[in-house]
């Protein structure tokens, strides 16, 4: 399996997960041009995509969907409620709605030879999900846009080989920043986004010695920065109630405008 963040941040998200024969995007929240450039960098073309799985309908996860659908006719997977909301997004233009494939949380499905396991998250969207994706005995997960975590989420993130996890904001930066009060409340609420601290605490619950790579993603442009997210998460791991230190793991920050390294497991 390969995992690559093509873009991750509050302004746009697109993650590639694939095997030798199956090529999937998790979200398409950047321009088609940027998506195709990213695929080209890992030796693929848009025409080789097997499917696109969508976490939820917000534009930073769907922006490039219309062009991809028109150009390549690639199947689009999401919950029924998510797909209904996407069908109302005028900025996507016209594309074949028959490409939509409705899925349900906790009902696994296959895209090519990848087993996709959607699980519910709490976010201010119609019916959002995160995804665990498996191939043979390897598994990765992309889990962002969740206001909090619970035992259900922890259980779905056990035994991973790699994870891209939201580390959206620093609470102090957000509280002192320029956002209006209602938006601060939204981000900090149970249907908002994970803070750096909570990302670190969630990681403490899922760490194991065979976890090969941790990518911190969906960073806010206004309320976070890479070094702060990285150092905060490392501190939570090293001081948390777990047998590990942050130095035991390969941790990196997924950038909003640059690709991550190619993670091969």
Automatic annotation (TrEMBL):
This is MBL fold metallo-hydrolase. Gene3D superfamilies: Ribonuclease Z/Hydroxyacylglutathione hydrolase-like. Residues 11-191 form the Metallo-beta-lactamase domain. SMART domains: Lactamase_B (SM00849). The lineage of its organism: Bacteria, Bacillati, Bacillota, Clostridia, Lachnospirales.
């Amino acid at each position: 399996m390969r995992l690559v963040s093509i873009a991750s941040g509050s302004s746009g998200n697109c993650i590639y997960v694939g095997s030798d024969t199956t090529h999937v995007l998790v979200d398409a929240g950047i321009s088609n041009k940027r998506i195709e450039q990213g695929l080209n960098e890992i030796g693929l073309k848009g025409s080789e995509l097997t499917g696109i799985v969508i976490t939820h309908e917000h534009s930073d996860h769907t922006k490039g969907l219309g062009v991809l659908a028109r150009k390549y006719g690639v199947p689009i997977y999401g919950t029924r409620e998510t797909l209904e909301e996407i069908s109302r997004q005028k900025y996507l233009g016209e594309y074949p709605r028959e490409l939509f494939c409705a899925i349900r949380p906790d009902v696994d499905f296959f895209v090519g030879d990848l087993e996709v396991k959607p699980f519910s998250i709490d976010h201010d969207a119609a019916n959002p999900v995160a995804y665990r994706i498996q191939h043979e005995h390897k598994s990765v997960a992309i889990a962002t846009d969740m206001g909090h975590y619970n035992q259900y989420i922890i259980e779905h993130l056990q035994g991973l080989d790699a994870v891209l996890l939201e580390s959206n904001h620093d609470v102090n930066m957000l509280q002192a920043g320029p956002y209006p009060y209602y938006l601060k409340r939204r981000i900090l609420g149970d249907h908002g986004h994970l803070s750096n601290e909570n990302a670190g605490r969630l990681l403490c619950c899922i760490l194991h010695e065979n976890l090969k790579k941790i990518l911190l993603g969906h960073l806010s442009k206004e309320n976070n920065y890479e070094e702060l997210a990285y150092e905060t998460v490392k501190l939570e791991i090293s001081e948390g109630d777990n047998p590990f230190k942050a130095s035991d793991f390969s941790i990196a920050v997924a950038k909003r405008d640059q690709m991550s390294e190619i993670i091969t497991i």
